[in-house]
Specification:
CATH class of the largest domain: Alpha Beta
Largest sheet: 5 strands, parallel
CATH architecture of the largest domain: 2-Layer Sandwich
Structural class: alpha/beta
Shape: globular
Oligomer: single chain
Strand order of the largest sheet: 3-2-1-4-5
Number of helices: 13
Strand content: 15-25%
Number of domains: 3
Distance between the termini: 26 Å
Radius of gyration: 23 Å
Number of strands: 17
CATH topology of the largest domain: Methyltransferase, Cobalt-precorrin-4 Transmethylase, Domain 2
Length: about 425
């Protein structure tokens, strides 16, 4: 028998030993709960490395050592996850946690764990946790049935699911796991394989059955990445094995997400594809910051551009001169590193130096923040503020309109939620 308990982890230290697929599932949800995570592993997935580089967790790049759980140099941990691929190491971690009376989850042996992680889900403000005698697929299936029943009012846990085949391209939205579509969430729950990007709502992975294969296709800016050809091959090969594959991306698959290339690869191989649109950050970032991309009497046109190459690069197909003349709202994705070049180009083609501008970093996530300025100074302002990807650049009079209407949100998403709901994140 188990005793289910809801842990409030905000500002409490958690140790995760191991940097593979299990850690990649567990760490995002711990961070989402407000925990301070220490990761011990010689290597880590690209997604975990990116979280460490962003300062969202502490990564000790070495093997586990005696004393890491409760030694004199260790923080006071409230929870430990043993998630390496070594039975011996996991046993050593669990034993040290047991001696220190710290709850420990062993990924490789539930019988040797002092605690288990249930299949969890939320609907209508209710969090559900299911432990079905250690059967992860049954736990996940019951969890999904309960949360879907809560969402639609039927609470029918006996509903069966038809086994799917092929590939689903699911746009995961701008980052907040609550902004993935209902259809996308349903398909994710049925996946045998999930091929995931770093900007996707990765905390949702923790809710999947433990035997679901997670393929880390993260592309870290100017760092590690999985080639698009390799991603296409994984989609086709896993689908040919009779598995249902979900390609989970941030934003929308068909807006600078190379979704068209992936559909083409599957079509050429005769693999059926389901496309589930997602909420793109091009719309969600300005919206979450309170910036209307169109506003009566201010802007009637919006131009969404990719800035993954500089305006003067021969590979750029953007008509920057035309954008400067248009006077409409410009939304630039992947533009943080080239914001100075973007501003200089628009200025050189006649856009006013007084044009309002804003940069929204980590839109819809607890770490969201907004930096504002003008076309003349936004590059310097963003650099001084330490803005880093992922971030969206908005240029146009709508930024000024948002300020005048007093709807511009410059605080964090967490602060905004607290203002609206009157309470902290649970």
């Amino acid at each position: 028998m188990t005793y289910l308990l809801g842990l409030r982890m905000r500002d409490r230290d958690v140790l995760v030993v191991g940097g593979g697929r299990v850690a990649q599932r567990r760490v995002p949800v711990l961070l989402e709960a407000g925990a301070r995570v220490t990761l011990i592993s010689p290597e880590a997935s690209a997604t975990l490395e990116d979280l460490a580089n962003a300062g969202r967790l502490t990564w000790l790049r070495r093997p586990f050592e005696s004393g890491d759980v409760s030694g004199p140099e260790a923080p006071t941990f409230w929870l430990v996850h043993a998630a390496t691929d070594s039975v011996e190491v996991n046993a050593m971690v669990a034993a040290e946690a047991e001696d220190s009376r710290i709850w420990c989850v062993r990924a490789d042996d539930r019988h040797a764990s002092s605690s288990w992680t249930p299949a969890t889900g939320s609907a209508n403000g209710i969090t559900v946790g299911v432990i079905a005698s250690g059967d992860p697929r049954r736990s996940a299936g019951l969890r999904d049935a309960i949360t879907e029943g809560l969402a639609d009012g039927t609470l029918d846990a006996r509903r069966g699911r038809e086994r799917l085949r092929g590939v689903a391209l699911v746009g995961g939205g701008p980052g907040d796991p609550g902004l993935i579509t209902v259809r996308g969430r349903q398909l994710l729950a049925q996946a045998d394989v999930v091929v995931v990007d770093r900007l996707a709502p990765v905390s949702l992975l923790d809710g999947l059955a433990t035997d679901v294969e997670i393929v880390d296709a993260a592309k870290i800016p100017y760092g590690r990445s999985m080639a698009q050809g390799d991603i296409n091959s994984v989609l086709v090969e896993r689908a040919r094995e009779g598995k249902f594959v979900v390609r989970l991306k941030g934003g929308d698959s068909f807006l600078f997400g190379r979704g068209g290339e992936e559909v083409a690869a599957c079509a050429a191989a005769g693999i059926p594809v389901i496309v589930v649109p997602g909420v793109t950050s091009a719309l969600a970032a300005p919206g979450s910051a309170g910036i209307p991309l169109t506003h009566r009497g201010v802007a009637q046109d919006v131009h969404i551009v990719s800035a993954h190459v500089a305006p003067d690069d021969s590979r750029s197909t953007v008509d920057w001169a035309g954008l400067a003349r248009s006077g409409g709202t410009i939304v630039a994705l992947m533009g943080v590193e080239r914001i100075e070049a973007i501003a200089d180009t628009l200025l050189s083609h006649g856009r006013s130096e007084h044009t309002p501008a804003a940069v929204v970093q980590e839109a819809t996530l607890p770490g969201q923040r907004v930096v504002t300025g003008t076309l003349a100074d936004i590059a310097v302002t963003a650099r001084v503020a330490g803005v880093r990807p992922p971030a969206v650049v908005i240029i146009g009079e709508v930024v000024k309109a948002a300020r005048e209407l007093d709807i511009l949100h410059t605080g964090s998403q967490e602060e905004l939620d607290r203002l609206v709901t009157g309470r902290d994140h649970e």
